[in-house]
Amino acid sequence: MEEKTRYFVLKQKAVPEVLLKVVEAKRLLESGKVTSVLDATEAVGISRSSFYKYKDDIFPFHENAKGKTITMVIQLEDEPGLLSLVLKIIAGFHANILTIHQSIPVNGMASLTLSVDVFPETGDVEQMAEAIESQQGIQYLKILARE
């Protein structure tokens, strides 16, 4: 049985130090203050393996009146109407689709990358992700970034 991805909001004091350092290393890389993962991990005092282990699983939480952008990748079967269903779910959560990129299907599978603007009325992004991932033909969904 496959374990569902769950999301939590924690106060900074409850987050292990290694995860906070991963966030700081990512910030250093994004800002251009360092040019490599090695430089970033040395600057914050963690191993590269720790960085790679957690880099896709921790993001700072930003309150933003205008909304925040979620970038996700979805692996889906090449079935007529499946992309339309995904877009309908996103619309049902009152999120705004910014970009869509779907690869050409290979062996009956396609990769879909979506950037979505979410707002307070969108509600729980975890519920939206679960609603998409629970659809027949969706292999997995992974949130790549939040801004």
What does this structure look like?
This protein has 147 residues and is an alpha+beta fold. The protein has two domains: 12-54, no CATH class; 68-146, ACT domain (Alpha-Beta Plaits, 2-Layer Sandwich), CATH 3.30.70. Helix content is 34%, strand content 24%. The chain contains five helices and four strands; from the N terminus they run H-H-H-E-H-E-E-H-E. It has a four-stranded antiparallel sheet, with helices on one face. Strand 2 (96-102) and strand 3 (109-118) form a beta hairpin. Helix 1 (17-31) packs across helix 2 (37-44). The two termini are 32 Å apart. The mean pLDDT is 88.
In terms of topology, how is this protein built?
Blueprint: H1 17-31, H2 37-44, H3 48-54, E1 68-77, H4 82-92, E2 96-102, E3 109-118, H5 125-133, E4 138-146
DSSP summary, beta strand count: 4
Question: Could you state the order of secondary-structure elements as H and E?
Answer: HHHEHEEHE
CATH class of the largest domain: Alpha Beta
CATH architectural type of the largest domain: 2-Layer Sandwich
CATH superfamily heading of the largest domain: ACT domain
Helix content: 25-40%
Largest sheet strand order = 2-3-1-4
Low-confidence stretches: none
User: End-to-end span in angstroms?
Assistant: 32 Å
Average pLDDT across residues?
A: 88
Our estimate of the beta-strand percent is 15-25%
- Largest sheet descriptor: 4 strands, antiparallel
The shape, in one word, is globular
**CATH fold-level assignment of the largest domain:** Alpha-Beta Plaits
Number of helices: 5
Sheet/helix structural class: alpha+beta
